[in-house]
Amino acid sequence: MKHWSKYRPFFLAAMLAVTLLTPRPAKSANVNLTILGLFPGSSMQQRAEAIAEAIRKSTPYNVTAKTSRPGAKHIMAAANDVNTMVVSLSPAFLSQKVLMQAAPKDIPKFKVSALMPTTMKAFLFFVYKDLPFESLSEMIAKKVPVKMIDGGGSAKLANEILFQEVYGIPLSDVEKWGGKLHHSAGGPAAIPLLQEGQANVHMVYTGGSFQVWEEFNATHPIKFLPVAQDEAELEKVKKALPGFIRFHWAPTRSKLIPAPVPTIGFSEQLWVNPGLDAEVVYNIAKAVIANKKLLISLEPSFATVLNDPVQMVEYTKSDPLVPMHPGAERYYKEQGWIK
Fold it and tell me: Is residue 23 part of a domain?
């Protein structure tokens, strides 16, 4: 035993080396995840499926994409499941639209962390070119009797809040000026009303292509106008619609935009449960960026955020109700996108 004490430090060092050098299974290799895209058949569902494919391609994780309607019960159940991710509207916006359907006692249970935005939905305000105003605020100040499509659904709700809280009038006042409100869905679904002259003003939230409006412009000349162009208006927007930020429609978007047009918008986020392992979230963020070209090819609306990673991170931080997940934050800092 006397001789053993002499060699004991060497023995312990050897055992430590064996322990450190022995391969171990990765802590987060055996992970089963669900990614939920709200609204069946929507671009949110398509983005959820595309992200699932990117994660499967670049990680060992098992990922299943599903879809669901955006009821408060479904959203909160998903948000409270540590292995479920959700592609959906801004939580701040949902807190006004969807969660108000839930019992007040349930709302504090709605806790999510932001991983990254999946697209940017910006306010698109366009009108017939011959109308006598050059911004939304001027249209309201002059009480121009326009024929307006309210966008339906969540767009209608946002427009009602915008008119009431930022400009101080109900959206319905448009009809008091001699105008007309069409309660119709926005985007391409609104084109027949515009073509037939039943409408001449359209407000819609979009992150998509301008091709349909370029084609429309060939027969019905239109112009895109500013929204909340000064800082005072923008601050009112942020207060009334938490999570909304400044957005500029750039000339690179379309030949219909000769100069940048200031407007507002919000991001549709990929949310994760705060309890999801930080290493898993780090690897998901890394996988999405590594497969940027694949994601954009599967769902072009990804281009609104993935082509500018610094801006993407700003969008990730834009929702006051949702802190960035530490795993995502670590990856973005390593890339130099967060200082």
Answer: no
